[in-house]
Amino acid sequence: MAEDLCIITNYFPPETGAASNRIFQLAKGLQRHNFKVTVVTPLPNYPKGSVFENYKGTFKHTSEESNMTIHRLWIYASNSKNKLRRLLAMLSYSFSLVWFFMWHDIPKKVIVQSPPLLVAFTCMLFLNRKNRTLILNVSDLWPIAGLELGAFKKNFSYRLLERIERFNYSRANLILGQSHEILAHVGTIVPQKQTFLYRNYPDFKPPAIDTFVPDGKIKLVYAGLLGVAQGIYKLCEALDYTAIEFHIYGAGAEQKKIETFISENPKLPITYHGEVTRKQLHQALIGYDVTLVPLLKHIYGSVPSKLFEYAYLGLPTLYFGGGEGEKLVLDHQLGWVAEAGNYSHLNQVLSRIDPSSLHLENRLKLQQLALNCFDFNKQLTAFAKLI
């Protein structure tokens, strides 16, 4: 008989992006391990910052999707840079969760996604019971990441968030971390807690790479969130286009700025392709030479899931973010690295890429390496045994 399990997350399809894909894959994988999965998530709103059209005008939406029960709760949706509005958005979902907990039976096994810290805090506070297992899935380290991105200063608010972070760790029975850096940080706060390295490996059958012949300029591609942390607008300004074309997929806060820059610089070989489905994106990506995975600056604990996904596609990566992600690229020979924030070095690395090395045989080797080393099912089996 299947065991009930609940996943509480801020992101879930039909929202796009790595976070929603990661949680959906986790949910589907746990179903294969004999869990009956319920998901609690806000009404879809990311990354646009407004509730999707099909879900507007409702406080709660419940549906059966992929043999899962999905409860979508009201949220004050916003992607504003205004800190007060962002706080209201997090608090609104927290209030919805408290209301949900009051009127629903919550399974004895619960996976809580963090960040946001306040949402995780709500779950850890209201769901803590002796007979319940709370699993905290830490995908980014907050408030440290916010401090490194310049969103926070070391003041009373920051110290309050640190206390919330410690509280969340202290109430969890098991803590998942997507990087060794995250688990090392958690260990300095709650050294007695059980932890598990849960990488954001993909779970899809990669498309076949039958033919690939590099042609002319290197076709460099970025696909993902067009947010401040990724710095794609700055890249458009700083890249040396002598030997490259730059292609962009995605949506986010910088989209309008990027579109304006392209229209004002029509001679630059930059193409914005908009937002497409994940399946469409995979088919498109295998036609490019090199993918770019950037972070405006190194964020401690961050390892972009794109590194694993692109390797599954046989697509070599130029990593521009530092930290543990850089080490992964070098250790597994996934591509090239450039010093985080150093655009001169980024252009030097691009200029040294030999187009003749981008042939089909090397791409197939990269894909096979990814399938062997970044095995989602093997990792999930190990995790399922713990819970």
Q: Roughly what fraction of the amino acids lie in strands? A: 15-25%
Which segments are poorly predicted (pLDDT under 50) over 5 or more consecutive residues? Answer: none
Architecture per CATH nomenclature, i.e. the level-2 architecture of the largest domain: 3-Layer(aba) Sandwich
Shape: globular
The N- to C-terminal Cα distance equals: 16 Å
- Kindly give the count of domains: 2
The biggest beta sheet is recorded as:
8 strands, mixed
Tell me, rounded to a whole number, the average pLDDT.
91
**Highest CATH level, the class of the largest domain:** Alpha Beta
Report the radius of gyration as a whole number of Å: 21 Å
Helix content: 25-40%
Strand count = 14
CATH topology of the largest domain: Rossmann fold
Arrangement of strands in the largest sheet: 3-4-2-1-5-6-7-8
Q: Would you identify the CATH H-level superfamily of the largest domain?
A: Glycogen Phosphorylase B
Number of helices: 14
Summarize the structure.
The chain is of the alpha/beta class and about 375 residues long. The chain has 14 helices and 14 strands.
Give an overview in words.
The protein has 387 residues and is α/β, with parallel strands linked by helices. It folds into 2 domains: 3-202 and 375-386, Glycogen Phosphorylase B (Rossmann fold); 218-373, 3-Layer(aba) Sandwich (Rossmann fold), CATH 3.40.50. The protein has 14 helices and 14 strands. It has helices at 18-32, 83-103, 117-126, 144-148, 156-171, 180-189, 232-238, 255-264, 278-285, 306-312, 323-332, 343-352, 360-373, 376-386, and strands at residues 3-8, 35-42, 60-65, 68-73, 109-114, 133-138, 174-177, 194-197, 218-223, 244-249, 270-272, 290-294, 317-320, 335-337. The strands form 2 sheets. The protein has an 8-stranded mixed sheet, with helices on both faces. It has a 6-stranded parallel sheet with strand order 11-10-9-12-13-14, with helices on both faces. The protein is globular, with a radius of gyration of 21 Å.
